[in-house]
Amino acid sequence: MAFYEVYSHPAVIRYRTSVCTKATLFLVIVLCLTYIPPLLVAFRSQGFWLKQSSYEEQPVVRFQYQTLMVAATSTQGDYVAWSTFPHLNNMLGPSLRIPAVSVREEDLNQDGKLDLLTLQLQLPLRNTEEVYSVQLLLTFSYQLFRMSTVVMQSLAFVQLASPVPGARLFLSGELRLQQRTPLPHRGLYSIYNVSVVDGSSPFASAYDLENIVRSYQARNLTTVLSCPMPVWTVGRAAGSPFELNVEIRYPVEVIAYRPGFWETIKFAWIQTRSSRRFPSQRGSLTCCDPAAKPPGSGPAGPAAAESTAEVLIRLSDRPAVRASGSAEQAEEAMSADRNWFRQL
Ligand SMILES: *[C@@H]1O[C@H](CO)[C@@H](O)[C@H](O)[C@H]1NC(C)=O
Ligand SMILES: *[C@@H]1O[C@H](CO)[C@@H](O)[C@H](O)[C@H]1NC(C)=O
């Protein structure tokens, strides 16, 4: 019948000594060597206190249906424009040109968060007009929830100019988050929950693209439209509108944040623990000091040291109880063990 191990336990050997001995001093030195160098290594090797960390999250983005578009129709400074701001449209006068617009936002992977905005805009033009450049501004509401709750209003701005008049412009890009400082790890962060364009203002300066971009770029948290490959198509047929097709994706972002107190402590703790290598060998070293044994508790002097050392060697040399041996053999070996410990 085959034997298998059902239970095992280590035997503990205790060495006692009084406080003012070389053994105690040695133990203290060993303890210091065990704890202090690893702490120094962990502390001096940078990144002991975690300053910044990051996580991934797909933002909740909604197009706010606010649009401002300016198209240069000649190289002499003529332009047509259109916006969703009534005050601006009133100020535009004859330059106002109402396009046909269709907007669609889609949740492609059905996870409850929108992934793609498709905007199609057809700008009617007179036969004498050509489009040389396009400026387009769209506003979004942008929200993050995983660590701190971030609520902000942001924009996407794109501008493209060509020396050759175009018939169509195709833009396909991503709305990327730009952080100047890490976000807090919790709480509500809504200082940028303010309109990017003040649509209630009757003054032209509120709709000046330069002013809008300047105050927007002063923020620590912004979104930018990353569109590396705009496609400008030339050759517009007479009487047909200028077409603007825009696709904007809302990708998963890697967001930097400042870790909280407990996360910082956790990482410092992990580093200290992982650089400490030999924590359990100190006990067996104290037996080197023959004076360690208090008087009366056994043979004193060099003889005691010898016998202790001898027992250690005998313990380590003793063949282990074989699992294949009989129960009687195992019992014998166990009683021999007990006798050894009694001698000690
Ligand atoms: C953000 O602003 C919008 C509109 O101004 C408002 O409805 C909303 O309650 C604000 N959210 C927070 C968290 O301040
Ligand atoms: C923006 O970041 C700078 C540091 O880069 C900081 O001093 C300033 O307080 C931040 N502003 C806001 C409104 O958080």
Automatic annotation (TrEMBL):
Keywords, in A-Z order: Cell membrane, Cell projection, Cilium, Cilium biogenesis/degradation, Glycoprotein, Membrane, Transmembrane, Transmembrane helix
A Pfam entry, by short name: TM231
Region described as Disordered: spans on this chain: 287-307, 320-344
Record flagged with keyword Membrane: yes
InterPro entries per the UniProt record, alphabetical: TMEM231
Membrane-spanning segments: 23-43
Domain of life: Eukaryota
Listed GO biological process terms: cilium assembly; regulation of protein localization
Topology class, membrane: Multi-pass membrane protein
A GO CC annotation given for this chain: ciliary transition zone
Subcellular location: Cell projection, Cilium membrane
PANTHER family found in the cross-reference section: CHST5 PROTEIN (PTHR14605), TRANSMEMBRANE PROTEIN 231 (PTHR14605:SF1)
Function summary: Transmembrane component of the tectonic-like complex, a complex localized at the transition zone of primary cilia and acting as a barrier that prevents diffusion of transmembrane proteins between the cilia and plasma membranes. Required for ciliogenesis and sonic hedgehog/SHH signaling.
Similarity annotation: Belongs to the TMEM231 family.
Name of this protein: Transmembrane protein 231
